User: What shape does this take?
Amino acid sequence: MVKHTTEWEEFSDIECEIIEDAFNNENGDVELDLSVIDLKTSIMTMKHDKLKQYSIKRMDNVPKRLRKERFCPILKKLSEMADDISFVYGIGRSKRHFAFSYQQEYFVDMPQSIGQAAAGILLEGEKLGHGSEAQWIANYSLEDKYKSKQEIDERCIALYTRKCFLYKLLNKTLRDDDLDKHETLGPFAHLLGYEGLFNLPDVCRYSKTVYRAMNLSLGQVD
Assistant: This one.
């Protein structure tokens, strides 16, 4: 699903899910965080300025672009980062082990953790102006509240890999070791890391080398 501003732009993965859900339910329109879409005319109207309207359309085989925001920008030399962060299965783990301390301090059981994760994501999403996306994520998370552990693990991993505000916020929180978000993002970080990625069955693991791309200044390359 794409929108036409000065050129065709992709919606976030979660926005696409929200639009598809509304379309499949035969709703006349759908509300996103920044806009309202008339599904009958395929016109998107911006909330902050109703005179700004854009066409949308569904596209198959959209060319894959480099996800520049998938990882937070590096603000210091690469050689200095090893002292602050180790990377475990793609998730930054700080010296205080943000993602794992939740398990020691708060974890009770899986259903309760899922409920806490959904509530925390909803709260953080609303703070950032992504209430609609956060609500979809919360509903998606709670659908599997009492299903098997593997299904829950796979769903958490799927959410983290979606193009939306969640992975950006979680990456930044882990890198900054932001303990102010421990109660809101700690449950999801725990489910994703301690319960999910560290306990994946072999059939779900990928053992080859993967690469990421980013722009670095000469001063950051050392």
